Amino acid sequence: MKFKIPQVNPYFTKDEEKEVLNTLRTSWVTEGPKAKDFISEMLKMTGARYGVLAPNGTLALYMSLMILGIGPGDEVIVPDFTMIASSNAVYLTGATPVFVDVKIDDLNIDSSKIEKAMTKKTKAIMPVHIYGAACDMDKITQIAKKNKLFVVEDACQGHGLFYKNKHVGTIGDMGCFSFFADKTFTTGGEGGMIVTNDSKLYEKLLYFRNQGRLTSGSFIHPQIGYNFRMTDLQCAVGLAQIRKFDKILKKRLKNHSLYEKYLAGLKNIEIIKPLSYSSFTPFRFNIFAESLPELVKFLEKKGIQTRGMFYPLHKQPCYSLYKYEDKDFRNSIYAYKKGLSLPVYFSLKKSQIKYVCDTIKKFYATT
Questions:
Q1: DSSP 45
Q2: Which of 14, 10, 48 is nearest to 169 (CA)?
Q3: Strand, coil or helix: what is 215?
Q4: Domains plus CATH for the chain?
Q5: Does the annotation mark 183 as catalytic?
Q6: Mean per-residue pLDDT for 202-208?
Q7: DSSP secondary structure letter of residue 171
Q8: Distances (CA, A) of 246 to 8, 152, 182, 185
Q9: Which of 67, 83, 84, 170 has the greatest CB tally within 10 Å of its CB?
Q10: Which of 34, 103, 123, 183 is catalytic?
Q11: Which phi and psi angles does 246 have, rounded to 5°?
Q12: Distance (Å, rounded) from C-alpha 215 to C-alpha 309?
């Protein structure tokens, strides 16, 4: 079905075409000058000292965990409400993801429940800055320091997002970003990055991601490593995108505020927003909605593509080997049953947002 208003629509202009064409004409399409420039721009944005590229956000998380020595027999605390990529990265190392419920107000991990989920096997906490809102990093880092745990931040939806004036991803031991097509900016569909302020971790990452060597073209490999590189073609797209990040963010914030304006006073929904310690980089316009299944059918019938919220990780069929009780995850279950995500991408027009909101109001007026 072709939707009048799709969920995802990356903002591409002649800037991306120019960067990609320039890369093709130089014939340097593997990691090279464009990759170096893109990393530099990301470090400038985040304030991190070091950064390496990764094929995607999932592998960025996996690489970080592996560098920290996490593997079989270890446990990593993960929010129950997140894209399964977060916990799958833990699973890929051979370690066990341990799920913790989220707070209902911003859907980020409930730090008050982390220590209850910890055991002697716990080695790390993975806070996920969900939907462009920051986790309560002070409390999380305090718990980590007290218990000598690593903190690997999943900042895959956190481009340009700050917690108390610190960019997310730079507060823990390592932070991971995704440049998938629906993120605030993309490297052409897939891509990722790890940032850190630790020079020793940075060096380990350099070896691990490049076949166990620091320099490509060398056939002496001091360490075991793999190919976790990106291409200059991807970074060419990323360069054009990140250079207009401020423009993109401004429009996404404006789109989010338009939804709020047009839906003001509608008692059938509740808008989800970040808490006071977090800035905001809207990933979607997120709400809790009454009669959600019926509303979704109504919207899609009217040509509006919707997106439900994450299925709780503790209920995922692929994780049936782990035994949990629903009573410990009331908020992640509620978010799945009531949560709806609507688009905020750059090219979304004011008239389209009004159409979406009018359609929602029409649904509730007739039910």
A1: H
A2: 48
A3: coil
A4: 14-242 (3.40.640.10), 246-365 (3.90.1150.10)
A5: yes
A6: 98
A7: S
A8: 19, 26, 17, 11
A9: 67
A10: 183
A11: -60, -40
A12: 42
